[in-house]
């Protein structure tokens, strides 16, 4: 007890000095964090709304059909979450059944896009928002999800029109966010850590798809 009393004032001086230094560093760090947080969340202030147009799409030629807002999370990507990945899915059903599922609030999952077998592209969630498609929060926040109409065990479902339309879509997404066109950044749902899904399945031709994406990426706009 006596030794503690003798050093008490010295401890307080050191503590004050450390507090001042630490406080300066913490204040600087807090200022950076606060600025970043405000940049992400300014539109959440009551009465302030990030500008959006109803029915607006991110990919020219896509048709807008809104998913249930229970199946995605409002965000401000890429300002709050960087986008560096495209995740390829297969619906395990028809196009219409996938649309119905994504509009069902009880489904709790949806992708940004669905590509039909005839090459038609439907967008159901804006790219700036986080879609619940990958079964992994980190991957959801950093990726755009693309569903493809069909079944993983039916190679005939993977049509030329689907491959070509999807490759053009993926190429535009990669160009928009500076995503490398490689298999580390364009992946299948099966490759997402923790998932129990197998899509796009063994019949998905990755060599063909990546070639088409590269060709579309370098083609004149």
From TrEMBL:
Question: The N-acetylmuramoyl-L-alanine amidase domain covers which part of the protein?
Answer: 72-201
Q: What is its EC number?
A: 3.5.1.28
Query: Which residues are in coiled coils?
Result: none
Q: Which UniProt keywords apply?
A: Cell wall biogenesis/degradation, Hydrolase
InterPro entries linked to this entry: Amidase/PGRP_sf, Amidase_domain, NAMLAA_amidase_2
SMART domains, per this entry?
A: Ami_2
Question: Top enzyme class of this protein?
Answer: hydrolase
Kindly state which reaction or reactions the protein catalyses: Hydrolyzes the link between N-acetylmuramoyl residues and L-amino acid residues in certain cell-wall glycopeptides
* Name the record gives this protein: N-acetylmuramoyl-L-alanine amidase
The species this protein belongs to is Streptomyces coeruleofuscus
